[in-house]
Design brief:
With 274 residues, the protein is an all-alpha fold. The protein has one domain. It starts with a helix and ends with a helix.
Amino acid sequence: MDLATIIGVISGISLLVAAIAADGSLWGFWDVPSILVVLGGTVAATLVNHSLSDITRVLAMVKVAFTDRKYSGRELIDQLVGLAEKARREGLLAMEEEAAQIEDAFLRKGIQLIVDGTDPDLVRNVLEIELAFQEERHRAGQGIFEDMGSYAPAFGMIGTLIGLINMLADIDDAEKIAPGMALALITTLYGSVLANLIFLPIAGKLRTRSDEEVLYRQIMLEGILSIQAGENPRLVEEKLTAFLSPGERARTEARSRELEDDIRMRTGTVRGNV
């Protein structure tokens, strides 16, 4: 699970509840008709704006937002460098058996294309088209939550208008004006909280997840084309390392130095024993 998302939602709700309880009663902020107006209106407007097939994927997208999916660029580069070394030693056809065992469908497809002798330009076009459609699917999911984030405050205002109309209908009764105004404003509160604590942050988290996955796929794409071109594995590693963030690159270099020092120490120990 993604602790940042969970902590953010729980802490946001907790702080709101604590702020309300400090100066008033929580039950005063609970109004079922207001919830129906805001949630029902938001869902209805989303159904109008999006296809049913897109809406059915909402739960899966929520799962993505709350699931910690860490992509290790270093592990991917090591895998691609290993494939480059095998291809350089034994030829591209030698990777056919390994290609079938690759878990990632995008990488598996790319390796199979170069094993089959597909033209490099065609390999790039096929993989870039798949990557483009993947980004489009991701944007569709983000768009649903962005739309819900814009609809919720709007229906909150609609609920407020409904409450004000009902309040003005009893304007002759002064005792009902203040409670009526309070209930009328609750829908605006519901809409703002849902939009800014749930819908829009989830859209942002989905965008972040999409950017991470696209970068991961771009590393694969460049690695696949480098393997097909028969480039030196060392050069392949240098090229792909450029995709990593400065922090991850620094950690990689530190680990490489540790490995080299360990190898030198072992080599020196062996020679000393000899």
